[in-house]
Amino acid sequence: MLLDPTPQAPSTWVDLLRHGEPEGGVIYRGHRDDPLTERGWRQMHDAIGADEEWDAVLTSPLLRCHAFAEALASERGWPLYQDADLRELNFGDWEGCTAEQIKVRDGKRLAEFWAGDEDYPAPGGETLASFQQRVASAWAYWIDRLQGQRILLVCHSGVIRMVMAEILGISAARSVANVQVPYASRSRIRVDDTDHGLFSCLVAHGFRPGQLQLDAA
């Protein structure tokens, strides 16, 4: 039987919460700063249990994350932090476009992008390697700064996938292709500082028990 390394300090627990439904419909929305719809706000409120406690709330600065994070932190009296490196992937010229619109004008490049080909980012956009690097850097910084605390991280599906890639030791492209992150879904990660370095594991992924999953696809 394999034994977990012995922690040197209290575990750090991070609950990653994807934002709810934003205004503007189903489009490529990276750095585009759309607010949540009324349904999106309901999704977010339902994702948080009345008796749940965190020591800190960390958020992307984009409205679809920050507005709810700020409201929750203010209501519960928790410290709030934000980090621009926790924004979604920048889709460049594809920002605000539907998949159908992009297929018409840039179908080959779109297929290559989703195949995980680093040579074909969105035109004027961010490469997957650059995105993974900035998310991994931000993750390492906050895990160190808030060590031993319970953290709620309100962010984006792409950010959650990049964190998953780090935790599970898989490529960013595989995480994008194989990890589903619906609106207002949650992922829990435990991080321990051990004699052998940081030991991180995925504890849960999906929805909290009893969550209504309002239009969460």
Write structural notes for this entry:
The longest helix is centred in the middle third of the chain and has 18 residues, at 128-145. This protein has helices at residues 38-47, 63-76, 99-114, 128-145, 157-168, 172-178; strands spanning 12-18, 56-59, 80-82, 150-155, 186-194, 197-206. It is built from six helices and six strands, in the order βαβαβααβααββ. With 217 residues, it is α/β, with parallel strands linked by helices. Helices cover 35% and strands 18% of the residues. It has one domain (12-206): Rossmann fold, CATH 3.40.50.1240. It has a six-stranded mixed beta sheet, sandwiched between helices. InterPro entries: His_Pase_superF_clade-1, His_PPase_superfam, PGM_Phosphatase. Pfam families: His_Phos_1. It comes from Alcanivorax quisquiliarum. This is Histidine phosphatase family protein.
Strand content: 15-25%
What general outline do the C-alpha atoms trace?
globular
Order of strands in the sheet with the most strands?
3-2-4-1-5-6
Using only C-alpha atoms, the radius of gyration works out to 17 Å
Can you say what the CATH homologous superfamily is? Phosphoglycerate mutase-like
Kindly state the percentage of residues in helix: 25-40%
Write the element-wise H/E pattern from the N-terminal end onward.
EHEHEHHEHHEE
Q: Determine the mean pLDDT.
A: 92
CATH architecture: 3-Layer(aba) Sandwich
Number of domains: 1
Helix and strand composition category = alpha/beta
The tally of beta strands, per DSSP, is 6
| CATH topology category name | Rossmann fold
